[in-house]
Design brief:
heterodimer, A: 345 residues, mainly alpha, B: 444 residues, alpha/beta, 14 helices
Chain lengths: 345, 444
């Protein structure tokens, strides 16, 4: 018997045994996977992780490791407890862990990331259905919870220089510097001189860009965060619309609210704006899926951030702005359905 | 001449896999010993058999027709004896009456359906009559009778005929080879259609991964001032007719509408070639070019196959299956093709390709929950929101699916292809469409 005959008869057997797979099209899938997307985000966060250890020392590394380990562990435990499939392989808990650590000051006690991870993974993520169903960014919700519960632990920032034990962030200097001066239209010099009385001064802009300033360990280096962000945009993991409209709107709103031009770069590079705009506002589950919705999300978060920073009681407004927009996401999605091709209204 | 390549918004880049067959010249398949010719290979009314068991038929003899306007006659592809007329499975998944003919191997030709005439001598009505007599249907897969498509209601003013040479489905190269090897026939076929519909403007649109086809058609149409060859960007689903009209004419076919609503008619390459052969040679549609391909086939080929030849016979001529195949056998491409239960089904007019995937390629993928990444919205050529449509469908909320325009879905599969969670998006939208249409029919 020739080879053709053998092969065909092999098929007949297969068909008889019902082994020939029949399914609805398409019969071909892309290489995209949830795990690959999450891995890309982790890769993008690596430069900032290295930077945080460089700037803040071994304590930063300790916080990141504890946070990641506890996030992954809590995810596995809660999924076991709920008798769900354990999905730690999708790597999403790793990202949550990194982001929680990134929001902590280097002086934070070891248990703070554990409490944060438990809250983020168990309550914010898994109670609402797990990956893709969380209505808020778990890491940001954890930050907000920790800030309310342990404000002193969360806002005692160590400087990057070993001789400075406690230090104020540039945003705090601007905010409280202005407040002590009593002038709404403070200048850099005024803020600097006012805060110099307390032994602090605004850092050099280049230090801010590189990340050599006091702050949460993962948010200070705009440069390293942007390197990762470029990677994510090239890999099409995140939509450029969210961060661009977010940061753009924040800038415009700060100008409209009368913030001095010299302060603007400090606002953009300072606090969690870069980290928030590129890595947290772009969280898939808690941000809109429609292109127009993503623009609105960015604009909304930008307006809120500027208002909280300038008019509110906190020096920083990124986390609350994103959380508020997270809550608005379902309604944004609802009213921004794209016009269907050829739709006549 | 406009050589800037055009495209539409949305869509997705899929690997072409065309290298297996794109440079293989079309060869004639071995004459089948038996053919099984379905009486219903098209959209519209089924044909009645014109022959009975024991009759002798010739190649090209009409063996089935219907009085209904929306129907397409069928012709014998061999000369021989009618053995039986019986319901059998066809590759579209239906079971329809089929005429089984045992070939005598002589290939004796029937009278041509028309005397060879110059195109100038034929009227529009005569051309449409020839196309109807030849049993020509859309050969891209949908199988809509071509004479119906070329007879738009008098209220619809058609100004452009577009010949669809996009062939955006991966693997398939039948149209590509037709364009490279018989560009004159394609151009002639287009002129026939333009005359039938009384249109001055003809476009042949080709994806730019087929440069040899583009240059062949530019050369073949160089003396035709009314015919333009337009290169298209390589993107799936560029060959969807509404996307093609958008790209080439910048006109949007309204939701629920047809190309004729924006003054265009789109014809497939193989269909156009069949039209040319019907008018030039009086040859009805009883054979077509089929790409037999995929990693599960030992020797991929582009073959001229007689309608009614079994998939089994075709596959056997291509070296049979590879060791780790077949995992899946598909009529058509991997994005929209129909997977087969059996290889005992006949090649029909809409069979552009027989694609065999290996067991590895056919393995079902693991589905995980939607992560709301929004990639399905980005790729949807209709700007639907597949993630929501799919959720509504899976929850049985077909009213909501209808509200979210499920019926506008062209089922191209780009959403399911791109989905990182491997959700069955188009698969579930398809279910919603069926439910909505059934409900509408009941309401009427």
């Amino acid at each position: 018997m020739d080879s053709k005959g053998i092969n065909i008869s092999k098929t007949e057997e297969l068909v008889l045994e019902n082994k020939l797979l029949v399914s609805s099209s398409p019969h071909m899938r892309s290489n995209e996977s949830v795990q690959r997307i999450m891995l890309d985000v982790i890769i993008a966060l690596v430069p900032a992780m290295i930077g945080s250890v460089y700037f803040f020392g071994i304590n930063a590394l300790k916080l990141i490791l504890i946070s990641v380990a506890s996030s992954v562990l809590f995810e596995a435990l809660i999924q076991k407890a709920f008798k769900r499939e354990v999905t730690i392989n999708d790597l999403s808990a790793v990202i949550t862990g990194i982001l929680i650590a990134f929001n902590l000051p280097a002086s934070a006690p070891w248990w703070l990331p554990i409490v944060g991870s438990a809250f983020a993974i168990i309550i914010v993520k898994q109670f609402f259905g797990g990956l893709g169903s969380n209505f808020m960014n778990p890491a940001l919700a954890a930050r907000a919870m920790l800030l309310t519960s342990w404000p002193s632990h969360m806002s005692t920032f160590t400087g990057t220089r070993p001789d400075v034990v406690a230090s104020a962030t540039p945003l705090a200097i601007m905010k409280y510097g202005m407040a002590t001066d009593g002038a709404a239209s403070a200048t850099v010099e005024a803020a600097t001189s006012a805060s110099q009385g307390a032994g602090v001064e605004l850092p050099m802009l280049m230090d801010m860009f590189v990340g050599n300033i006091p702050g949460a360990i993962g948010e200070t280096s705009a440069l390293l965060l942007l390197v990762g962000a470029v990677y994510l945009i090239i890999r099409q993991v995140i939509d450029w619309r969210v961060p661009v409209f977010y940061i753009g709107t924040t800038f415009i709103m700060l100008v409209l609210l009368g913030v001095e031009t010299e302060f603007l770069p400090y606002h953009i590079l300072g606090g969690g704006l870069i980290l928030g705009a590129f890595y947290m506002a772009t969280d898939y589950a808690s941000s809109p899926v429609t292109p127009m919705g993503r623009i609105i999300f960015g604009i909304g978060a930008g307006i809120l951030t500027a208002i909280i920073r300038v008019k509110g009681g906190y020096p920083e407004g990124v986390s609350y702005s994103i959380l508020l927009m997270n809550v608005a996401t379902p309604i944004i999605n609802k009213y921004t359905s794209p016009k269907v091709f050829g739709e006549v209204k | 001449m406009n050589l800037k390549s055009l495209t539409f918004k949305g869509g997705v880049n899929v690997p072409g896999h065309k290298e297996m067959t794109e440079n293989l010249p079309i060869k004639r398949a071995v004459e089948p010993a038996v053919v099984t010719i379905p009486l219903h290979q098209h959209t519209g009314a089924p044909c009645e058999a014109l022959v009975k068991v024991g009759d002798r038929v010739k190649v090209g003899q009409k063996i089935g027709q219907s009085d209904a306007f929306v129907s397409a006659s069928v012709h014998s592809s061999v000369s021989g004896i009618v053995k039986s007329i019986t319901p059998m499975a066809i590759p579209t998944g239906l079971i329809v009456d089929c005429i089984v003919i045992e070939s005598d191997g002589k290939g004796e030709l029937d009278e041509p359906i028309t005397e060879p005439k110059d195109l100038e001598e034929l009227t529009s009505d005569e051309i449409i009559q020839i196309i109807r007599e030849a049993g020509i249907t859309g050969m891209g897969g949908a199988g809509f009778p071509t004479h119906v498509k070329l007879s738009p209601p008098s209220g619809k003013k058609i100004d452009t005929i577009i010949i669809n040479g996009a062939e955006c489905e991966p693997y398939i190269t039948a149209d590509h080879r037709n364009m490279v090897e018989e560009p004159e026939k394609i151009v002639f076929g287009l002129k026939v259609i333009m005359k039938a519909v009384k249109v001055e403007k003809g476009i042949i649109a080709i994806e730019e991964n087929k440069l040899d086809a583009i240059s062949a058609l530019i050369e073949a149409s160089k003396d035709e001032p009314n015919i333009t060859v337009i290169p298209l960007k390589v993107k799936y689903p560029q060959g969807d007719e509404k996307r093609l009209i958008d790209a080439t004419l910048n006109r949007q076919v309204p939701s629920g509408g047809l190309p004729m609503d924006v003054g265009a008619i789109v014809c497939n390459i193989s269909t156009t070639k069949a039209i040319a052969e019907a008018v030039q040679m009086g040859k009805p549609l009883y054979e077509r070019v089929v790409t037999v391909t995929g990693n599960g086939i030992k020797e991929p080929k582009n073959l001229i196959v007689k309608i009614g030849t079994s998939f089994k016979d075709v596959i056997a001529q291509c070296g049979g299956f590879t060791e780790d195949a077949p995992g899946k056998i598909i009529m058509g491409g991997p994005m929209m093709g129909i997977s087969q239960f059996s290889i005992d089904v006949p090649v029909i007019k809409g069979t552009g390709s027989i694609l065999v995937l290996t067991e590895e390629e056919a393995k079902p993928v693991k589905v995980s929950p939607c992560i709301k990444c929004g990639k399905c919205l980005e790729v949807c050529p209709v700007k639907l929101q597949p993630l929501y449509l799919s959720t509504f469908s899976l929850k049985g909320r077909f009213d909501k699916a209808e509200e979210f325009h499920a019926l506008d879905c062209v089922e191209c599969g780009a959403c399911s292809y791109i989905c990182p969670a491997k959700r069955p998006l188009v698969e579930s939208i398809r279910i919603a469409k069926k439910e909505i249409i059934t409900k509408r029919k009941k309401a009427n």
